[in-house]
Amino acid sequence: MTNSHNQTLAKQALESIKSIPIQINSEDLDVKDQSKSKINLDRFNKMMDEAAVRQYLCENPDFFDKQPDLLSHLDLNHSGSEVPSLIERQVKTLREKNQSLQTQLVEMLQAAYRNEELLNNCNRFMLHLLQAEDLTSLVNRVLTGVKEEFDLDASALILVGEFKPCHPARVLSDPSEVKQLLNNQFPDNSPLCGRLENNTKLELFGELANDLKSSALIPLGENCRHGLLALASKDDSRFSPEMGTLFLDLIAKTITGLLKNHNNWPRLTQLINIKD
Hints:
Helix content is 51%, strand content 10%. By secondary structure, the protein is α+β, with helices and mostly antiparallel strands.
């Protein structure tokens, strides 16, 4: 063999040796004699930590699939062939967060539109009540108006106090009678929404009870002092314990105020002068 050929073989052997990964064990390091050691321990430990992380990621290629939130904390430089895929994954995570925020925004806007519609319904309903000329007229306007404006399947009204009989409302003399009528499902000072017991539904809504899936019991005054308005729907999700009761409270206060001043209606009607 010629010298040039030997040099070529030696060069190839050297390159092969360089490509072999070298693992260093801690016991192979002589760190007792600091004067002889040329290894910076801090740098070595950092390199070992990075190597451990690299080894773990190689053994667990789906790590970022299980921990997607970590991608948003990575500081990546677009400098290597493997980096773009991580950047794309980070961008994907941010896009998903953006999509989630957009979904929340849409839900908030939809809720705002629903609330605006409910407010308009309440305004029309209350103006409808203000046109009542007497107690009987008020009762009829409450029971029919609330179903029409809020698309309900049933309504019932109980009056408490010295009211003359006015069908179809039921008149009771004392709030305790309302509590007895409703058994354990008695609203104290705020509307009670959800499912009613069969006996309670039957007492309030009669033959319609079997078809009604969800209801709202609205006290008129503290502890039903002036009565109770009951609403019901065939939709089991229409009234639920988690729902807000702002508009139900508004309706209750309006009806309660009219009941407390029903003796003054002729004079109030003249002052308001609302025409049908």
